[in-house]
Amino acid sequence: MLIPTPTRILVATRPVDFRKSIDGLAAVTELVLGERALSGAWFVFLNRRRNAVKMLLWHQGGFVLVYKKLERGHFRIPENDQDRIVLTPAELAAVLEGIDLSHARRLARWNPKESVAHGTEAR
Q: Is the backbone of residue 60 left (phi > 0), alpha (psi -120 to 50) or beta?
């Protein structure tokens, strides 16, 4: 099975009880984060000690649950006072590899203006 590229990746910033499985995490997604569990987004949850992560996603008629537990250390996510953080696939990969994103520096990138992207630039 190939796991699809997510439309969005949302990381819950508050710890989740890891006795919850698919149905419990889907409920957290809907009730706590206010997001549709069937949206195609990936929902990432950490336990209290941050040494385990569960990722929930909807794919072709069913949920997929991915679980990773570290034998040593813990996952580091950027601090935030909101109920979630939005990550890119590259940032999620970095977190899962043990990279602390709070010390990472994003280089400036150029993106065209909306009018240029749609071919309506004034001439």
A: left
Q: What is the DSSP letter of 98?
A: T
Whole-number Cα distances in Å, 110 to 69, 90, 113: 37, 18, 9
- Cα separation, 90 vs 73, whole angstroms: 21
AA letter at 72: R
% residues pLDDT > 70 (the chain): 90
- The rounded distance, in Å, linking the Cα atoms of 64 and 37 is 11
Q: Could you give the CA distance from residue 91 to residue 114 in angstroms, rounded to a whole number?
A: 25
CA R_g for the chain = 17
Is the pLDDT at 13 greater than 90? The verdict is yes
